[in-house]
Amino acid sequence: MTTNTHTRTTNTIKIAEEARDELRTALTAVGIKLPTLSLDAVSVTGDIARPLVTLGRCTPEVARRLAAVLRTCST
Predict the structure, then answer these.
(1) CA dist 75 → 3, 11, 15, 34, 38 (Å)
(2) Residue 2 has pLDDT above 80, yes or no
(3) What does the domain layout of the chain look like in residue ranges?
(4) What's the pTM value of the predicted model, to 2 decimals?
């Protein structure tokens, strides 16, 4: 991996981590916790990372609370 590619990959992962953290903070503010909110390990590997945020597994109750919060934002 070249230095430029490595730098781009590092920056891309950092941006994804920041997005994950922003989402975690916003969810916490409305009382929702997704226990496995993280970056998808497979998507950050390879020559050029294309990181994805894994929203995580949650109980049906948490899924319904999340849906309710989203509905209030869409009206």
Answers:
(1) 47, 35, 29, 24, 29
(2) no
(3) 3-74
(4) 0.80
